[in-house]
Write a structure and sequence with these properties.
- Helix content is 32%, strand content 21%.
- Strands 2-3-1-4-5-6 form a six-stranded mixed β-sheet, with helices on both faces. Strands 9, 11, 13, 15, 16 and 17 form a six-stranded mixed β-sheet that branches.
- It is built from 39 helices and 44 strands.
- By secondary structure, the protein is α+β, with helices and mostly antiparallel strands.
Length: 1449
Amino acid sequence: MSLDSMLPVAPARVRALVLPIGQIKRDRFSSFVQRLNEEHVVHLRDITPDGRPNRNMFSPLAFPDGAMFYDLITYIPPPSHLALAPFELFREPLVLIAIADGQELENVAFSKRQSANGYAPTMAERNIRALDQELEKLRDTYPKILAHQVLIFDYAPHTENTIHIPDGIQTIPPVENSKRTTIKTIMCDISSLLLAEMTTLAKSFEGMTAIDSPGQAPTRPGLNGTSAWTSDDANPAARRNSQYAVSTVTRSASTSGASDRSQARMSMPVPFKSLPFGSSSSTPSARPTTPVRSGLSNPPTTFDDIASANGSSTDVTSPEPPGARPGSAGGMKSSNQDKVSVQGFGPGSLNERWRNKGRGRVIILIGSLYLQAGRWTDALKELVEGATVAKSINDHLWHGKALELIVICLLLLGWIGVEFQVPTICLPANDKTISSISKGPDFEEGDPNQPKHLRILQNTLPELLERIVGLYSRISGEQLPPLPLSQSIIRFCSLLTGIHLCEGKLDKESLERIVLGKLPTKSLTSSPRLTITPSRAQIAALLFKAFPSSAPELLTTVDRAIILSGIATVLGSLGFHRKKAMVVRELVSVLIGGLVEARTRGAAEVGIHPAAGLVALNAVNGHGNGAGALELGEGDIEHGIDAFLGLLCKTYGVVGFDDAIRGSSDELRKVSDADEKVIARIQSQSSTRQFGIKNVKLNILRACINFSEALPDFNGVLRFSSDLLRTAGSGVAPGPRREDAAPIITRDEQIRLITNISKTAGLSQRLGLQHLSAEYWDEFLVRGIMLDPLPLTRTPVPHSKAVLPGVTTARTSQDVNPFIYNPFIRAPDKAMVERTLVTGEAATFRITLQNPYEIDVDIESIKLDTEGADFESSIMSSIIGPYRTQILKLTGTPKAAGSLKVTGAIVKVRGCRERRFPIFPQPWAPDTQTKIKGIGLAALEQNKKLPFPGPPLIPDSIGLSVISAQPVVVVKSTTLFQNSVMILEGERQVFSVTLQNLSSTTPADLLLFSFQDSTQGPLQTALTSRDATAAELYEYELILARKQALKLRRIDDSKRYIAPGGTATFDFEILGKPGLTNGTIQVDYAHLGVPQDEISEEFHTRQVCLDLTITVNASVELARMDVLPIKGEVPKPIWTRLGADGAEEESSLSDEKHCLLLLDLRNAWPSDMQVSLKADNGIMLQEHILPGNTNRVLFPVPRVYIDDPHASIPALNPSRQRQFVVSSSKITPEIERGNREAFWYREKILEKLSGTWKTLSGPAREGSIELRGLRLAPRMIEAIKIDEVGIDISVEDPEAEDSSKEDGGNTIYTDEFAQIKVVITNRTHEPLYPTLRLMPSLCHRPLNVALDFTRKFAWNGTLQQTLPLIEAKSSTEVVMGVIPLCRGEFEISASVEETQLWIPTKEEEKEKEVVGRRERSDTEIMMDAVLGAKERRIWHSRRPCLVCVRDRG
């Protein structure tokens, strides 16, 4: 059965006061009361009747189908309720149950004084005797209560020592040892005692001559002037380890005289100072004041007043005379009331009208007792008789009360299935017979399965209840106070609501709800239910008649709150949620005023300033959530008031944090802040924000804040203050100059709210309530998190395993060959580098926070929230200014390698819960939909179930990679002054750099050096030019590859290691070259920890760079050059001066082997220079050049033979060797052949020649001369080159051989035979088909004369002849006989021409490949195609053979 005080059958309940006794804890007392509540319905068939013959008026045997309903209360009813007795008997407690804890019997003595019954051997027995004494005190303190009983729960007696249990005390074993019927048996025993004692109470009523109505002055003031519900001389029961107040108000259980009982019953409850509703300012009078006036003259100040009754005195305050207050109900009495006799009922002693009134009221009281006793048939009989009498004498209040109790009897009889007949007194005045009602249209349309008597009652109820309300409201000499009137109307509406929820039928289901208060299985919506009678509109119209008046003197705050809560409950059951919210809003306003006054008075009583409220008192009592102010349990705030205010806010559409999550206050609320939960929360809040009226929401929240402050409820203040800020906000993530995110409340109110949150949270912290905090009001606090780039010296750069030197053959030469791909020079992938962290090293993050409010947000702590690898974030505090986005810098240190993901930030705002905020970088605002009318909360819930119409919310995250710990290397020192150097062209200098490892734990076991200088950029640009020739590209590549400005001197790889905290020194060499202004030494280092061949797929390096400033000055410059052929023999002194031995080198240093190289060298350095030129054959020339002077140097260099002077120009860059770049310029094959010849002969000259310089004054410097400025013209090439085919012409004359050698020429004689010998040498690698042509001529003659030699020179054969094939690298001789015919000097020259081109066979090509030359690539074939088709060649003798013809003799 429900414990609802507004249940339709509430007048049939028996109120039982449950008090703690002895040593007992609060939670155990609550659990024991809960066990009793489970058996609060006691059936008469289970009750054993009392055996005494004079106590059987309410014997359960008379109606075993009945039942008694107990209303177990743990508080003393307020005087405004007690004043309604005996008009409403169910308001007074008839039973007192004192509960003791059996587990405490052997722990602490309940009483310090010795037992009056003798010595007790054990602590348990002593405490049981103390409980017996306390029971006697309770009987004396509460004399008007009929039955007193002490229950010892969880009592486990000892088997060896049996303790006697006195009468009035019953023991209950623990739950595990109890039976299903244990508590039921206890309740049946208490009921048996109560039914027996109710006989005495009934007899006392029967002996009364007159019974006053509520709000009416007592008819016999002399009898009851000092009587009260509690005894005057009884000591108030003290609190015993309980939160519940034990009042001094009791009822006598004595059965020793009807006169005493009568006198006690005729009196109204006299208010005391200790009671919360008592009056302490009334003047003495001979008659007590009316109960209504005395109970309402001073409204309650605080709920603590109920509990304070035990500690205050029981001084009786004298009531004021009714005449002093003519406006009150108590002052309205007729003169006949003063003439009422004090004698009993006697013939002729009383006026017949007053006698009938007293008799009718007594009959109604007896019927009320029968109703409470469960004998409903007897009650119906008495009530019908009483109603008839009251109607006959126009006693409207008691007539209405009798009809109300008759309705309850009929409902209870229908509930147990007993067929009844609706009394005639209940029928309308026009239809006094049941048959007329049964013939109505509504009766015929009813359910045929419904019992007839229930259908008749159903049809009668609406009109009957309206008639009862009319009787209660009728203006007459007796006026019913507002409290019972409103509660009766609420009970009637609850009855009609139960019928309405069951589709308008009074059947078994509806009776279960009406009697037992079972909650409906489904809630009604706002859709109309027009076919159901009674309709909801009719019920609501009747219900609002119970709405209390605004006059404060008519109702106390508690009574007004009870009425408003009952109205709200009925409206909620009907589905009128908006009407319910309106009533609840009024309820909150009422409670605020009452709580503020109670807080002020309560603070004054304990000596605290009223502004401080009851905070300190609550903290002392252990209450931290406002429960102490109302003397509630620790969970009552959360389970009662919190839900009550939350329902109010939900009805109006207040944007709360998360209505689905409400935890208890004694443990942290487990709120999930995962991304999906936060997104769902934002979407739900957005839907709620579009529901309802904003100003109404704000007013509701302000009222809730005031209510929570009045309690005081810290949790409520924090919650509703944050909800107000959240509701007033826009709930969007604004973009730059787009959405207006300003709140709709003023800045002053925002400041007041956040100050309230801060102060409340600080106070709760000081009181030890660590779990109380608000929820931050903006879900878009974190708008972005970005990792700051690491310094360049600490940025880890990823590399693949293949780039390590030594892993592949090509990478081995990375320190010297710039054309091998060097991944350490290139710019790293920025996105990859920016997402890499190093274990143990702090990284800086930029967190963007938004504050769309006009107040400062005080962030107590903020740290990063990560997933994956272990990460330690620093914690910082800050203040975000009003209406702005602000960037904070936060550091974090990864503790282990692996993948890391930054998903948000954990923020603790002052006064708010520390929680996680996801990252929402993109602007977001919900779509504003067209306003579509939606009725009630169902529309809001339906919208929440639909897919969210706005743009999607996508939280951001930062994926990071954490690598193992790495060293930190810096440049400690260098041997260069300020990292700058001055150097001359061609000079090489060596300097040292010392590197230091700052890490104390990690060594650097991988060191790779790369170099960059100012000359590389222009060279790289030139290499990409399509207009550059192959020779120019070769020159650029050669400078890059062979003439590097910076390079590392060769060291052992084992020295490339820096221990933790250690240093290492490396030597570098710098070369002076034109255009060199700066250079950089880049050191890539890492800690691998394993050999290079065992490394995983990827590793990371760091870089440290040393920037150098370089100044290059000119030294020795090559101004111009020329190549001259040597004519004739070179004098021996020249060879000797050049350092050659003339005896040994005479044959080799001939003009056939050498040519003269002419060089103009200029000394551009202001110091004397000594220049040395050296050839590969040991010839060396030294020259001294003064500063600024240019000296010309003649130097013989060997002539050069090139097997294939037209070969393609190679590329030093391996990548360019595999591609063919088409030149953008058009050149002829002849020019291409000339360019190639010049390239190859120049390279050969440079290979054989070298030059150096050194200073002779000033600082000692030395270097090399840059000779690559040589450029060969075709004339120079002819002087240098050695032809592919050599032609040697000589004259063989044995007789003149010796003399010719001595003369240095060929001498023959006229008219004598001689032989001309021609030796043809094939220096190529291919066979040759030659054709020889000899051309004799006269010396020193013009050409036309020189060739006229037919009569001067005769020869044997032809001058032109085709010779057989000459193999490669071989020679052949041709001998021809000649006879000179005259004296003189002749020149014999020759030329050799290819007769035909030699085409090799396939076998010969394969043999050539085997010999050593690789197969020609397609690129070479394409490049050679530029030379055009291969043609026949011709060679001429370099020098003619001079023949001197003499006459013999």
